[in-house]
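User: Structure tokens for this complex, please. No commentary.
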Amino acid sequence: EVQLVQSGAEVKKPGESLKISCKGSGYSFTSYWIGWVRQMPGKGLEWMGIIYPGDSDTRYSPSFQGQVTISADKSISTAYLQWSSLKASDTAMYYCVRLGSSGWFDYWGQGTLVTVSS
Amino acid sequence: EIVMTQSPATLSVSPGERATLSCRASQSVSSNLAWYQQKPGQAPRLLIYGASTRATGIPARFSGSGSGTEFTLTISSLQSEDFAVYYCQQYNNWPALTFGGGTKVEIK
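Assistant:
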């Protein structure tokens, strides 16, 4: 069974750094793109970026380029999303997703709620 | 960037009735379109990909149609568990993937 298990909720202050994780299991982690999707409170879904763990090829949405860093450690089948300096506007639910063969998101993690507040 | 526009924003439907949701792309995405369902407090789940192919385990009452710029998700007979928010997503312009704003299907 394919599973994406994300790290737990975080509460941070503006300016702090953060790295959240997503561990894949039940499939070949290095053979599928893994992505991140943001959902701000009460809002829709926004694609942030994707990484191919096999060779670490990474692509970002223009809206998120330079704002976050996506990485992966294939030795432990885990993808990461990190911020160097959080803002209140980063408060959102973040979902880890696996991309199907052509670009749809076939499996979703349970979500990680990030709250940034002073 | 390809902009995806969903309509209506909210659809009020009685259980057992048919629901028809629309998704329009700002330029052709061929059949490279997916639909997702999100219930309150849950992660979205894939319903349809390739505009009309149901994902594994999705009931036959869900069907997708369309190509190019106009797409439709139809729920033939709404069940109580179908009241949720539905999103479309294009992947024709990979890796620039974009979602529509969503349609909330609520109980009439």
